[in-house]
């Protein structure tokens, strides 16, 4: 009876969830053990036309698009471990918080997880079929995602490949310590420095080339490294806002979409130049020792796949690691302070 009810619910959900954010497989929180209908899941009240967007209005809104963790905590406290939100009519998000529920979701999803993010980025890339085959690793789902993912992780997870980058990574970090950490006149906010370190490491690994070598002139806002960091940052900052919300960018070029487009065009120009140079050097010297060389020589991916992957690597490699290092320092600082107290 229970299985039958579950299957009935699933049939209904799978049938109507084309625009649902999470393909929720089972609305059973590991805590409650009570199976619920989709529309029984508690959550913020959704109004006709505006959904729950009114809750995200500046000043009087309860949630903020760029404070995902705060929104989550507020929802968890108010509605419990499984929360349903119809953010705009027809687009439902189900928030799950408990690691056991997240684990269950991943297990049930199987080989092809369904993610729904980086949608405006996907639109941009799909509008340029002469440059990209797909929207890239993050927005692509299903078999196409698996084709890309399998090809790209093959080399990345080889110990031999990692070993090939140990010495170069050491050199970059050594230079960073000498030129930036040991210099005089340090500032309180170390984030711009860290961004440059992770840009240099990512650029080196993605393109087999050095970019800035931490020269003082690179701190100028017009330098190549500053422009690249800004482009990646502009794109990443627009993702959450273009994914959630009314998605007006689907109808016309909103300022957020323009920001993604401009940043992307900048990174793309660099990626196209460097990937094409690498291809020429492989043809003339027959060397494919690097990650980029391996990808370009692979039968599983073509030139356009590699360009997309290279842009993804630059987008994902700068802000993420900088943020993690900052969070880590914050935790260490808190621990030291508590120990001193
Ligand atoms: C510590 C820093 C990092 C964190 C916290 C982080 C976090 C994540 C998370 C949570 C995802 C999964 C997104 C999803 O499937 O919905 C992801 C995917 C990805 N990350 Fe990172 N990341 C980090 C560093 C990096 C770096 C350094 C690179 C590349 C140089 C990178 C490249 C990617 C790529 C290409 C994907 C897409 C994978 C796929 O969809 O198959 N990430 N990252």
From TrEMBL:
What does the record give under GO molecular function? heme binding; iron ion binding; monooxygenase activity; oxidoreductase activity, acting on paired donors, with incorporation or reduction of molecular oxygen
Native organism is: Aphis gossypii (Cotton aphid)
List the cofactors.
Answer: heme
Regions annotated as coiled coil: none
Task: Identify the keywords attached in UniProt to this record, alphabetized.
Answer: Heme, Iron, Metal-binding, Monooxygenase, Oxidoreductase
Provide an example Pfam family for this protein. Answer: p450
Q: Which family, according to the similarity comment?
A: Belongs to the cytochrome P450 family.
Instruction: Report what the protein is called.
Output: Cytochrome P450 302A1
């Amino acid at each position: 009876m229970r299985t039958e009810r579950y299957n009935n619910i699933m049939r209904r959900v799978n049938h109507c969830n084309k625009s649902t954010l999470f393909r929720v497989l089972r609305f059973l929180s590991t805590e409650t053990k009570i199976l619920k209908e989709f529309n029984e899941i508690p959550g913020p009240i959704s109004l006709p036309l505006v959904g729950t967007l009114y809750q995200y209005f500046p000043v009087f809104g309860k949630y903020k698009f760029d404070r995902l963790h705060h929104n989550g905590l507020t929802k968890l406290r108010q509605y419990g471990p499984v929360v349903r939100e119809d953010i705009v009519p027809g687009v439902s998000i189900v928030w799950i918080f408990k690691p056991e529920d997240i684990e269950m979701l991943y297990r049930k999803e199987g080989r092809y997880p369904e993610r729904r993010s980086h949608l405006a980025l996907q639109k941009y890339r799909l509008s340029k079929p002469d440059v990209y085959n797909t929207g890239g690793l993050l927005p692509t789902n299903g078999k196409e995602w698996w084709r890309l993912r399998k090809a790209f992780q093959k080399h990345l997870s080889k110990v031999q490949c990692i070993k090939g980058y140990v010495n170069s990574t050491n050199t970059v970090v050594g230079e960073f310590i000498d030129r930036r950490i040991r210099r005089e006149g340090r500032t309180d906010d170390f984030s711009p420095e860290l961004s440059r370190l992770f840009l240099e490491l990512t650029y080196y690994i993605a393109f087999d080339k050095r970019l800035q070598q931490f020269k003082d002139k690179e701190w100028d806002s017009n330098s190549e490294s500053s422009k690249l960091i800004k482009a990646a940052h502009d794109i990443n900052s627009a993702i959450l806002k273009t994914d959630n919300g009314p998605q007006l960018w689907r109808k016309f070029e909103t300022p957020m979409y323009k920001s993604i487009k401009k940043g992307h065009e900048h990174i793309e120009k660099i990626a196209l130049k460097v990937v094409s140079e690498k291809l020429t050097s492989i043809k003339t010297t027959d060397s494919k020792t690097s990650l980029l060389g391996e990808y370009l020589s692979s039968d599983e991916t073509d030139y356009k796949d590699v360009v997309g992957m290279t842009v993804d690597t630059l987008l994902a490699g700068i802000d993420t690691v900088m943020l993690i290092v900052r969070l880590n320092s914050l935790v260490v600082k808190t621990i030291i302070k508590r120990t001193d107290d």
